[in-house]
Amino acid sequence: MPAVGGFDKGTGKAYPGNLTPYVTLTCVVAAMGGLIFGYDIGISGGVTSMAPFLRKFFPSVYRKEALDKFTNQYCKFDSETLTLFTSSLYLAALLSSLVASTVTRKFGRKLSILFGGLLFCSGAIVNGAAKAVWMLIVGRILLGFGIGFANQSVPLYLSEMAPYKYRGALNIGFQLSITIGILVANILNYFFAQIKGGWGWRLSLGGAGVPALIITVGSLVLPDTPNSMIERGQHEGVKTKLRRIRGVHDVEEEFNDLVVASEASKLVEHPWRNLLQRKYRPHLTMAILIPFFQQLTGINVIMFYGPVFFNTIGFADDASLMFAVITGGVNFLATIVSIYSVDKWGRRFLFLEGGTQMLICQVT
Fold first, then answer.
1. Are the CB atoms for 241 and 20 separated by under 8 Å?
2. Which residues make Cβ contacts (< 8 Å) with residue 216, sequence separation at least 6?
3. Which pLDDT tens digit goes with each residue over 254-287?
4. What pTM did the predictor assign?
5. Which domain holds residue 102?
6. What's the CATH number where 34 sits?
7. What is the DSSP pairing of strand 3-4 with strand 7-8?
8. I need a surface site. Which of 31, 34, 162, 272 has the fewest CB within 10 A?
9. Is residue 269 part of a domain?
């Protein structure tokens, strides 16, 4: 019988496999792809709250923020160019994810991760050396392209490499890296804003190159996943790789099921049209509504625009940056808890608990 989610559909038992040091190391390196996304989320809001940055690239916003004492603080950041600077990354990430899905499938997860790292590194260099607004926007677009590739390939890589028993915890490693990136970015923003001369924003923006280099170099030494090799018709050596990944000798059953699953997927015609069939509608509906409503809670706005948000409600520049650090720290600690509990209590429990917690907080 074909494999379903890491266990045999006929017996209901998970395939044999251990959490080997080899798998742990590769998953940790791959999960670093989340750093580039998290770092950018945390860095952008802090930079746009720094007076020297605004004075150089967005003087109209700086004049309103520094000199206009009568206009509402929120309205002082009403700038189409500033909005383009922040939002261009997400538009680029959306567009690149469409291409990244094809690259990830046809050329492997490793190559897609490599592209993501190189593009993000290029964007960090352009932003750190920016002399004009157009350089900032070009850099942001390159960052978005990198995020699109990394977000498409890293979670898939982690799922395919991790043993079934530890898949939830290792997959959340990507989310953990995002929260680490947010926290580190907020801390760096706080300290870089103290640099005399007003050039600390360059270190904040250029610092994105560090996580980009980690994932770029890491992608060169990461092994390809057995699923990806079989998907691309490279069956030779897959069993040897499975034995090393799983830490057991008996991988015949999992190998056969991976081959069967790959062949079955190639026979599927019109996959997007199939998703609209009646039997798949509940799954499709929840797959869309869960992240949609998660976004509507506003947490991503807080993470992205945290320093600006706290600034607009009356906090001083340093205080607003510190509150962003606190928010990032809480996010990081919550992710640590979820890593421990996801495989112990299950995804459904975490979903219900998290939803209840968010509902209570939203009401209060």
1. no
2. 114, 117, 118, 121
3. 788 888 877 777 777 777 777 788 888 888 888 8
4. 0.78
5. 17-224+298-363
6. 1.20.1250.20
7. antiparallel
8. 272
9. no
